[in-house]
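--- STAGE predict ---
source: upstream dedup step, 1 unique chain passed
mode: sequence only
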Amino acid sequence: MIVSTVFALLAFAANSVLCRLALDENTIDAASFTVVRLVSGIVILLALIKITSKKKPAKTEIKSKGSWLAASMLFIYAVSFSYGYISLDTGTGALILFGAVQITMILTSVLSGNKLHLSEWCGLTIAFSGFAYLVIPSLTTPSLIGFMLMSISGMAWAFYTLIGRKSKNALSDTAYNFLRTAPFVLALVIFGFDNAHITSTGFLLAVLSGAIASGIGYFVWYIALTTLSVTQAAVVQLLVPIIAAVGGVIFTSELITLRLIESSTLVLGGILTVILGRYYFVQLPAKKSRKNIV
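--- STAGE serialize ---
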C-alpha cells in the first residue's frame, strides 16, 4: 500500500498547487471553485464505478455507499478551505490546516484509548517542527475569520480521514460521499451566485482539482488508510506541504531554499521515526507476545 499512500499525498499536493493557482490569480471565486471541484469529483468517481462494475461480478462487490457524516465533513473541509484562503496567506493557512489535522487525529486516537509510544511522540514532534520551520518565516497575524475557517477545514478533513479507515469499498464510499455533497453544493451555488466569477482557466484548474487531485486522490487515500494507524495517517500528511512547496518551485517559479531542504529532512526523519517506532516498539513486540502465548 506504499504506492497508494504516495499517490494520495502527491494528489493532495497537486490539489494545493491547483487551488493556489486558481484563487491567487483570481481566475475563479472561492464558492465557484468549490462547486466545480466537488461536481467534477462526482462525475469522475461515478464514471469509475460504471467502468469497474462491468468488470466485476455483482456478487463479489461489497456494498458500501459512504455516509452523510463523511459527506458533510468533505463539504465542510472543501468550502472552509477555499474561503479560508481569502484572508490568509499560503504559509499561515497551511500551518493552521495541517496543525488542526494533526491535533484532531492524534487527540481522537488518544481519547479512544490508543496510547502513543515515546518514539512516536518524538517523531511527531520532529516532523511537526520541520513543517513549522518551513512556513514560519512567511507567517503573519491571521484574521480571526480566516483562522477559524482553516481550523474548521483541518478538523473536518481529520474526521473524514478517520471515517475512511473503516471503509470496505474505497471507490464506492468515496463516490457516494462526493455524491451526497450535492445538496450542499446546490445551496452554495444559490449562496454564491451573485458573486460568481469564473474564467476558462479557473474552471479548468477547478476541474483538475476535483476530478484528479480530489476525486481519484481521495479514493486512493481511502485505500491507503486500511494499512495506516491513526498516528501514521496524521503524520504522513505532513509530507503534503513539502511536496506542494516543490510544486510551487516548478509551477510558480518559487526558489528552492536551504530552509526547504532542512525542513524536508526534519519532516521525513520524523515520519520515519513514527513509522519505525510503531513497528519496532509496538507491533513487533505484540506479534512476539502472541507467538509465545500460542
